[in-house]
Amino acid sequence: MLNLFLIQALNGVQLGILLFLVAAGLTLIFGVMDLINLAHGALYMIGAYLAATLTAATGSFLLGLVLALPATLAFGLALEFLVVRHLYGRDHLDQVLATFGLILILNEGVRIVWGAAPMSVPVPDALSGSVRLVGTLHYPLYRVAIIAAGLATGLGLHLLVNHTRLGMRLRAGASNGPMVAALGVDIRRLFLVVFGLGAMLAGFAGAMVAPILSVDPGMGDSVLILTFVVIVIGGVGSVRGAFVAGLLVGLADQLGRTFGPILLRSVMDASAASQTGRTLAPMLIYILMAMVLFFRPSGLFPARGSR
Amino acid sequence: MLAARIAAEPPRRRAALPGAALAGLVLAALACLPLAAEAAGLPFLVVTATRMMIFGLAALSLDLILGYGAMVSFGHAAFIGLGAYAVGILDAHGVRDLAIQAPVAAGVCALFALVTGAISLRTRGVYFIMITLAFGQMAYFFMVSLAAYGGDDGLPLSGRSTLFGMRLVEGDPALFYLVLAVLAVALLALRRVVASRFGRVLRGSRDNAVRMQAIGFSPLPYRLTAYVIAGAIAGLAGVLLANQAEFVSPAYMSWQRSGELIVMVVLGGMGTLVGPVAGAAALIALEEVLAHYSDHWRLGLGLMLVAVVLLSRGGLAGLAARLAGRRA
C-alpha cells in the first residue's frame, strides 16, 4: 500500500510538473497581456509533434528535443506576429473566438501534415531503465528525468522572474500593464518575449511527454483544460501559484484515481466503491477548483493586489 | 424611489416590431418546410432543419446570459448533454414520456446551473470563462466515466419519447414540428423576459454594474436567475437532440460544442435573440457544406473565425454594428 502510494505520488508530481510548464507561460500571458489564449494547448501539441519528427529525423531524442525548442519558439513568435498581436486590448470574447479558431486550424493542420494516427517516440536508451527507490520499489528513470528537468526549469523560471530585469518587468506588467508602458518600457517587445517564452515552455512540456504519451491531434485540448484549472487555482499571473497549483492538481488527480475507490470501500461495498470512485476521480480536480474559488475567488496567489 | 422608477420605465420598442414580423414570417415559412421537402424529394432537409432549430434553441438560451448579461459561459454544452442524458437515463429505466422527461431534464439542468452558477458568478472576466469551461468538462468526464449508462460509448435510446402516452414524434416531420413549437415558445418567452423589469436590470448590470448597485440593485441574483433559466432551456434542447438522434453521448457536452455555441451567438448577433438562432442555422449549414467538400472542414471554419475577428474593426461587435447600420 505504501509502495502504491509512493508510485502514485511520484506520478502525481510528474503530471503536476508538466502542468506547471504549460501553465507558467499561459498564466503570464493572461496576467501580463490580459489575453485569453485557448491555443496554448496547441503549442504543447506542436512541441510534441516537432520533437517526434526531429527525433525520427536525427535518430536521437536529445537532439530532437534540443532542436524542437527553437522550432516551437519560432512557431510561437510567428503565431504572435500573425494573429495574437492583433488581439491585445480586444474584448475577451473576440480573443476566445479567434484563439478557438486557431485551435481548429492547428488541430486540423496537424492532422493534414502528420495524419490522424498517433505517433510514438521511443524512450531514449540512456533513460530507459528504472531507479530503485526503497526496498524492491522501482520507478522508471525517464519519469524521474521529467521531474528533474521540470524542477530545473521551474528554478530557472523562478530566478528569471524574481532576480532579473526582465522578470521585474514581467511582474510589473502582471500587476499593472498600462503603468509599465507609461514608464517607457517597450510593451510590444515585452509581450513578444512573454508569448515566445510561454510557447517554448509549452513546447518543452509536449516534447518531454512525447515518449510516454501518444502524440495525437487532440493532445493539446485535454492539457489546455487542466492548465486552466491550474491557473485558476494558482491565481492568474502568478508563476509561483502555477507551481503550487500544478502539483496540487497533479497529486489530487493521480492519488484520487487510485485511493478514491480504496477510501470509499470503507463506507460502501467493494463494487459500488470502485464504480463510484471511478466516476468521481476525474471530477476531483474540478471539485478542488470549485472549493478553492469558493473561499478565494482570485486563486491562491493573486498577482494583482487590487481587484 | 429612484430604483423603482427606473425599473418601471417602459421598454423602447422601436426596433422590436420589424424583428417580430420577420420572425413570424420565418416561422410560417418553416412550418411549410416538411411538406416542401417531401414534395421536392429531399427528406433529409427536415432532419437538418430540425438540428438547426435544436442548436438554435441552445444558442438562444446562451444569448440570454452572453448577450444580455455579458457572461461568457464556455460550458453551455454541458446543459445540452445533461438534458440529453436525463432522457437517456429515464429511457433506460422505462420512463419514455416527454411529460416526465422534459421537466426532469429542465430541473436537473436548473439545479446544475444554480450550483455551478453560484460559484462561477463570484468571479468575473477571464476567471468566469475558465471556470464555466472547467465545470463543463467536469460534467463531460462524469458522463464519460458513468459506465452504467454507456460511458464513453454513449447510450442508445429504445426509441423516441412519447407525449402523454402517445407516439406523436415517431416521424421526422412530427419531431420537426415539436422542435419548431418549442423554439417559437422559447423565443416569445425570452422576448418577454428581456423586456421585463428583470431583463432591464440584467442589461443594466451588463452595461454598468457599479451604477446598478448605486441605484439599489444587486446584480448577482439577477445574473444567477438568468444563468439558471438559460441552463434549463439548453437542457430542453438536449431533450430534443436526444430524441432526434435516438442516441445520447458525452460528445454532446464536449468543450468544442460550447465553443461552437458561442460562435453561433456572436456570429448571429449578441443580444438579439433571433440572431443566435440564425447563427446556429448558418453554422450548421456551413458545417454540412464544408464537410461535403473536405474532411478537413474544421480548418475552413477556423480560418473564417480568425479572419472575421482580425479583419473587423472593433471586433465582431463592431462588424455587427456596421452591418446593422448598413441595413437600416
UniProtKB/TrEMBL annotation, chain A:
Membrane topology: Multi-pass membrane protein
Molecular-function GO terms, alphabetical: transmembrane transporter activity
GO terms for cellular component: plasma membrane
Annotated keywords: Amino-acid transport, Cell membrane, Membrane, Transmembrane, Transmembrane helix, Transport
One GO term of the biological process aspect: amino acid transport
Location within or outside the cell: Cell membrane
A matching Pfam family: BPD_transp_2
Residue stretches spanning the membrane: 12-31, 38-57, 63-84, 96-121, 141-161, 190-213, 225-249, 283-301
PANTHER family found in the cross-reference section: ABC TRANSPORTER ATP-BINDING PROTEIN, BRANCHED-CHAIN AMINO ACID TRANSPORT SYSTEM PERMEASE PROTEIN LIVH
Family label: Belongs to the binding-protein-dependent transport system permease family. LivHM subfamily.
Protein name, as recorded: ABC transporter permease
Upper taxonomic lineage: Bacteria, Pseudomonadati, Pseudomonadota, Alphaproteobacteria, Hyphomicrobiales
